[in-house]
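Record 4-hydroxy-tetrahydrodipicolinate synthase, 312 aa.
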Amino acid sequence: MELHCRRGETTVMTNPAGTAPPFGRALCAMVTPFTAEGALDLEGGRALAARLVAEGCDGLVLNGTTGESPTTTDTEKAELVRAVREAVGDRVPLVAGVGTFDTRHTTELALAAEKAGADGVLVVTPYYSKPPQDALEAHFRAVADASGLPVMLYDIPGRTGTRIAPETMIRLAEHPRIVAVKDCSYDFLGTQKVLARTELAYYAGCDEHVLALRAVGAAGCVSTVANVVPRQVADILAAFEAGDTARAARLQQRATPLIEAMTDAGLPGTVTAKTLLGRLGLPGGPVRPPLLPAGREATDGLLAAYEECVAD
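=>
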């Protein structure tokens, strides 16, 4: 499917083979930079976004979980979208995280993201209340109806407590503005069932699945690890697109120790990404409570994994 993402209009049409996916391929789930005092660092946000684009990211996801959306205000979310839009212009799509456990609040955030200049919205499954599938479907349809922006659903049952069932996903794919999925379901069979029966653009939301999901028909990835190694993540997908699957596999394997250190070693990806960005002299700043910074041992391990990933 081809989706022309222009603020205020959405056109969906059959996508001939080889055309670009709706939001790019190598997307970064960007951290939200803060000052040393914990305030929103808009200049840091502009600088980080510009670096990510220069290093190969062809789309950015703002205000997601990695962007500390639970602890940023609605005003800060809109300000970050506007600042990043100023920094990158129209070179890459911006997808704004707007998902909450409240349908009304989520639709308000979607409208605010549209006004701020986003090209799409990321809508996570409502968490804590564990709505059944018919309620999930109604929630996502309400958000998709609220603005003119295309929607990327975010399926991450490990955090939300509720899976978007494949059958629900297939029904939601009928909505003209529900066009993509950030997939953290850890259900390859379920994902392939949806890929086979819809034109939804799937994006791997778990860095260890970047190549595996692309190989079965996904569009690309929304990567946390790309905050610190954007070129390396983009190169995995570029090698696959070029038909060099052996090189793509080598690049994925080379990134594995860093992926494990950043996402599967007991610390949230926000903490590990900001730790490395700080040690590399790049914008990020501290995390907001209840998150805490990484300790010295964890930081040393992250740096060792990073150096292994980027070594020539």
